[in-house]
Helix-turn-helix transcriptional regulator (Undibacterium seohonense), 202 residues
Amino acid sequence: MSIFSKLNFKDQAFRLREDAILDATSNVLAAKGFDLMTMDDVANLIGISKPSLYKHFKSKEDLVGAAMIRLLDGATTQLESFPSEYSAKEKLSALLEWALRVRLDGGLPFLPSTSNAVREMLMRNLKYVGRVIKLNSQLEKLVVAAQKNGDLSSKLSSDVILFSYYARSCDPAVDYLQRFSKMDSNAIVENMLRVCFQGLED
């Protein structure tokens, strides 16, 4: 085996461990939140030493930033994978469904909505900000297109629709329904999408 092949294998192993670290981070954040999460929590969950964890991420802030970037990359990948024949509204609905299922399956909570300190920390992460700007631009174009098609109200500002859409992705109603209702995940997603796009009227 060549040196290049060995290095490539090491790179792959490094990335696999990094993915496992980010999975563990998501689990800890979902259970404890940012303020209570520690690097020890993540290292213990994945079964590695704290020094090994620091080889990948220098701080809790870097670790959480990477997890959020991965979430945004996942959203962008989902959006770009939808069939071209989907209407703008169908793409918005399908992406919101994906985001709700991430939450319901115990994935990373939508941290920017939980704390001013977390928002400020993420805003200092240029990679994160770049991903946010890209995704926001894509979604904004979909909202405008859906309004032009008559699928979303043209009487509302596109900003109102867009930020209301964002709010649905981190709506605490999802958590309450999962904990206290008898609805399964599919029913929760179906009803949350209905509320988002059709409102509360029949």
